[in-house]
Amino acid sequence: MSIIVGLPQVPELHEPPEEADTEGCIQCQMGSKLVLFITGNCHWRCDYCPLSETRRDIDHMFANERRCESFDEVIEEARAMRATGAGITGGDPLMARERTLEGIRRLKAEFGTDFHLHMYTSIPFRPEWASEFAEAGLDEIRFHFLDLEAEQYRETIAACSSASILTGVELPCEPDKESELLELLEALRDFDVDFINLNELEITVGNIDNMELRGFNLSTEITAGAAGSAELAHILRNRVNAAASGLPDPTDGETRDPYGYHLKFCTAVYKDAGQLRRRFQRRGEATIAPHETLTEDSTLMFGAIYATEGDQESWIEEIAEQTDLPHRFMLWDPDNQRIEIPLVVAELIAEHVDTPVAMVEVTPTFERMEVTVVWLNDNR
Q: 0.85 exceeded by the pTM?
């Protein structure tokens, strides 16, 4: 008998950063960015919001998958994955502005000025706040335009750019908003933006009802991307790239002046499987215990002998005596009432003990979520 929870299965991803990609994008693709979820609170109700009910409109802070009560815990998680930077998200970080500023200052003080910080917001905040974020150490900001209306963000964007914060726009590519997105490309010509990031619209547990109401379906069975989103993103990206090269638009044949900004498209499968897996791999490499093996799926695998608190010490001694396994290759897990050992040893002794023995696979996250348990004997 086995219990398995699947992780996203994707082919090997070969998507090197583009020359004009921002540092935030480059580090995210490397899997080296801490995801700092500053609050679940948001001032808007976007129907495509992917957040689950466990995070939406709840004022909790997470560092990656870890719930954090303080920035000391955030820093611990950053160290655990050997982070080179952090992406500050939510909800909307501006709904907890002072907390966000504190987080920026703490991370820069702990890891130095090269620790890259980018932030997402949909709020056209007071222009004078831009200098506060810059002085705290924010390197990059990405604005999410509500209802694709750009004008209300003009002064805030200009202030951020003037404060030497790399400034751009990040939006989901909604398949039914082609004309509005094409108009937005033109409108942004005279904005102080360095880049536009388009994300493939994702259909998730948090938004599936709304997406069905709008008639969106999944594009394939192995991705959360909405059908038509990637195709529209390619039309938009091709237009900007053609203009930058002085070439006709592949769609309508018109030659346009360069737009003055870079447009990047991030697919759902790459964002959720590629980047996530690389982050898992990075944390796994940094936190792996002597008895564990890091798999090709960036999970941790080990053997487990189930025991009671009273028996575990004597059993560890017996295993060491019978197998010559050093004590540093054995770990008592009181929460799950089991002794963790190398899988090869568990397989060796499974049929010689009268207690349950299993192969266990976990994510290399703070909570170590079990994704696979395969029993190696019939003593359950």
A: yes
CA distance 346 to 352: 10
Residue 215 CB burial class (10 angstroms; 0-12, 13-18, ≥19): exposed
For residue 240, the 8-state DSSP code is H
Domain of 202, CATH number, reads 3.20.20
Mean pLDDT of the 233-258 span? 96
As beta bridge partners, residue 372 has 4, 361
Residue 1 pLDDT grade (very low, low, confident, very high; cuts 50, 70, 90):
very low
Given 286, 311, 337, which residue is the final one in a domain? 286
CA dist., res. 340 & res. 344, Å (int): 12
- Would the pLDDT of 283 be above 70? yes
Could you tell me the CA-to-CA distances from 298 to 13, 15, 31, 63, 327 in Å, in that order?
14, 18, 12, 19, 25
- What is the domain count for the chain? 2
